[in-house]
């Protein structure tokens, strides 16, 4: 048996095999990138920039206002549990926010 030897051209076939392997690897990489981009596009919420919906190239929207700051949250919870009445709640909330308390001025 002569295998690859003695068939005329000698070593002219190996560059084509290397090129073929590189093309197959490049095709695999391109297909994987396309699949990843396709699934990322499906997972994005559609929307125009500035509409509040995420999309390609738009930063995430800030969303609804979050919970109140720590002291205001605690004060609201105490009012909800009935530990303080409405007048004291409003007075302490005004103090926290730096505005004059509502109601008659203390004498």
Write up this protein.
The chain has 107 residues and is an all-alpha fold. The protein is 50% helix and 0% strand. Helix 2 runs antiparallel to helix 3. The longest helix has 30 residues, at 14-43. The model has no long low-confidence stretch (mean pLDDT 77).
Main beta sheet? none
* Sheet/helix structural class: mainly alpha
What's the overall average pLDDT, rounded?
Answer: 77
**Multimeric status of the protein:** single chain
The helix count comes to 3
Broad shape: rod-shaped
Order of helices and strands: HHH
- Low-confidence stretches are none
- β-sheet strand percentage: under 5%
Helix content: 40-55%
Count of β-strands:
0
Write the layout of secondary structure elements.
Blueprint: H1 14-43, H2 70-81, H3 86-97
Give a brief rundown of this model:
The chain is mainly α. It is 50% helix and 0% strand.
List keywords for this structure.
rod-shaped, 50% helix, single chain, 107 residues, mainly alpha, 3 helices
